[in-house]
Specification:
- This protein has a single domain, classed as Roll (SH3 type barrels).
- The protein is elongated, with a radius of gyration of 19 Å.
- The relative contact order is 0.18.
- The protein has a 5-stranded antiparallel β-sheet with strand order 4-3-2-1-5.
- By secondary structure, the chain is of the alpha+beta class.
């Protein structure tokens, strides 16, 4: 891969990581059905917890691991793993009043290219025994 291509790839990944970080704390306006569907698609791609407020006022916080988008809001649903109990919860789109991106996106800024860049920086600095080690979980 040539240098300009590698820089473009790095730039795109860093821009993607910045966009993901911008989502942390975001509460989208759910004015229309389309707004709700788009917000839930973004929540599905988000690698952090979200808080869903139902129309009855109850809230559920967790990681969205599945979504089923049907022709109507009643036939569409998201499935989350609850933050504190690990229970799998299904929430129909028509029950949702608000969505908030409340957890930190665990994937933001973590890519193979970012790891390689760090590896080569450490190697160039003369560090020894550098290798592929997983990051600590929080």
């Amino acid at each position: 891969m040539s240098e300009p291509q590698r820089n473009l790839t790095e730039d795109l990944q860093e821009a993607s990581a910045r966009e993901r970080r911008k989502m942390e704390g975001w509460v989208p306006d759910l004015v229309s059905e389309d707004d709700l569907r788009q917000a839930l698609e973004q929540a599905f791609d988000y690698r952090g917890d979200v808080t869903i407020t139902r129309k009855d006022g109850s809230q559920v916080e967790g990681y969205i691991f599945d979504r089923r988008s049907g022709p109507t809001l009643t036939s569409s649903a998201v499935r989350l793993i609850a933050k504190d109990s690990r229970e799998k919860i299904t929430v129909r789109y028509n029950e949702i009043a608000a969505v908030a991106f409340t957890g930190r996106d665990m994937a933001a800024g973590k890519s193979w290219e970012a790891w390689l860049r760090n590896y080569w920086q450490k190697k160039a600095a003369g560090e020894k025994d550098i290798g592929l080690h997983p990051e600590e979980l929080e």
